[in-house]
Amino acid sequence: MPLARLTLPALRLPVLRRPSMPAARHWLAGLVLATTALLYLVAGLSMGGLQPVSTLAHANVPQNLQQALPTGAPPAPEPLRFRTDVSPEDAVAINAKIPLSTEPNPAARPYRQAFATPADRTRAVECLTAAVYYESAMEPVDGQRAVAQVVLNRVRHPAYPKTVCGVVFQGSDRTTGCQFTFTCDGAMMRAPVPVLWTRARIVAEEAIAGKVYAPVGWSTHYHANYVVPYWSGTLAKAANVGRHIFYRWAGGWGRPPAFRLGPADAEPQIALMRRVTSDPSTLSDAPAPDALLAAQAAAAAAAAANGVPTAATPEKGGVDSLSRAIVRRYEPMTPQAATDSTMAQLNKPSPTMHWALSGLPEKPQAPLGKQPAEAAASPPHCLEGVRRLPAGGQGTPEKQGC
């Protein structure tokens, strides 16, 4: 190149230009595409690791408890049979010696039931109210909540009916006995006390709405502390609440995975509830109690005529009006015996408490006011000039010597 052409413009290097950046919306679209691709990748990897629901349920249980999960058919509910050779005082001591289970006692899940109609909900609430009232009317509120919890636990267990009314009145239509004695021993023939019934209904409403009484866990059994049932040694003792002792099934059938069934949406119509229901229209299809009793009496008479025994020979006081055997939670007591038993359990009973329980004073009381003194026996009067027959009424009358 000639020297004349080596000028400054000729030696200037070309100017480098930055490439133009894409618009902001292009960056946003790319980010969305990248996120979508990442989600598809994660979903694809997860599909290979899916497990059956039962496997996942087992995986959430500690290894040392997996062997105790329920298998096979659920156990049959035990009949209400209690030892009759044990006095109430001895029963309290025997029950106190049974230790509480050392296994975990998790709280039950809140109760959820999708009722088919409002009438079904009313029937469920009133059946649960009847159980709370007739089983624990004189218990504190916690004792009533514990009874309600047991009923709702049973509804979700495979061994029991899938409705509240079905659980409460299970066995009441059979001659072999019932699960809750008040449903077949004539207790429902007595009208409930309104104040106590209202308190029981509040407890039932709260339980149906999902309120949980945690201390009893998943208990399905209970009994009063003054009786000893034959099955108490086969179950796990879970809690003591008031005068009731609560138990759950031993092993897998008493653990939370066993309570896996949901309740039915339709509650049965129970004829006995006609006496206590607040809305008779909810039991329009249930037979009247008198008609039900007549049908049961006719069936019992027909069975007896055919030589079919309707029940085992019961002990004295163990039959109802249809000569059906009744399994009681306690032996019948006279009013005086019931009063004496309650007074013996009180710390410092007062005469007022005795009167409130029995309607009678603790000791015979003298009538109010000043009582006249008893007059001393006076000798027979002597009448001057009047003759009197000798002793024996025979002989000649003699003058009296006044």
Task: Provide keyphrases for this structure.
about 400 residues, mainly alpha, three-stranded antiparallel sheet, two-stranded antiparallel sheet, 5 strands
If you had to describe this structure to a student in words, what would you say it looks like?
The N and C termini lie far apart (194 Å). The relative contact order is 0.12. The longest helix has 24 residues, at 24-47. Helix 5 crosses helix 8 (194-208). The protein contains eleven helices and five strands. A three-stranded antiparallel beta sheet has the order 1-3-2, with helices on one face. It is mostly helical and 402 residues long. A hairpin with a 2-residue loop joins strand 2 (236-241) and strand 3.
How does the SSE layout of this entry go?
Blueprint: H1 8-11, H2 24-47, H3 53-59, H4 88-97, H5 118-136, H6 141-155, H7 164-168, H8 194-208, E1 221-224, E2 236-241, E3 244-248, H9 289-305, H10 335-345, H11 351-358, E4 387-388, E5 398-399
Antiparallel strand pairs: 1-3, 2-3, 4-5
